[in-house]
Amino acid sequence: MVVRRSGLFRSLLCAIAFAALCVNASAEEAPTSLRAQDIGAIRDIHYGEVLFYHYQSAPFNALVNLLVSQERDRIEHHVENARLLMGGLKLEYGLHIEAEEIFRQLLTEEVSASVRDRAWFFLGKLLYQRGYLSDADQAMQKVMAEVGSPIHAEQSLIRATIALRQFRPADAIESLADWQEMPGAWRAYAQYNYGIAQMQNGDLQEGLLTLEKVAQAPPVDDEVYTLRDKANLAIGYRLLDEQDFSAAKAYLSFVRLEGPYSNQALLGSGWADGEAESYQQALAPWRALAQRDSSDPSVQEALLAIPYAYGELGAYSQAADGYQFALDAYEREQVNLAGTIDSVRDGELLDNLLALPVRIRVGADLKQSDLAGLRYFRDLMASNAFQQTFQNLREIHQLRRNLQHWQTSIDAFEDMLSTREQRYARQLPLTQDYVEQLDLDQTRTRYNNWQTQVGQAEQAGDLIFFARPAHKRQWASIESVSKHLSEVANSTTVSPLATLYGFDRFFDEPREPASYKSGGELSPHARELRIAQSVQRAALSSNPQAQDLMPAWEKARLLRGVLLWEVQADYFARKREIEKQLAELEIQIGIAATRLASLKSAQQSAPDNYDVLDVRIRDGRSRVESAFVDVERVAAQLRRRLESLAVERLNNLSERLTSYQLQARYSLAQVYDRAAVEIPETADDLPDETEVPLQ
Amino acid sequence: MKSFTNLLLTLLLVIGVASANDEDSVSDLDTEIQTLKQTLLDINRDLYILEEDLLFPASTQISVFVSMDVGTFFALDSVQLTIDGTNTANYLYTPRETEALLRGGVQRLFTGNLTTGEHELIAIFTGIGPNGREYRRGSTMVVEKELGPKYVELIISDRQSKEQPEFVIKEW
Question: How far apart are CA B34 and CA B95, in angstroms?
Answer without folding.
Answer: 31
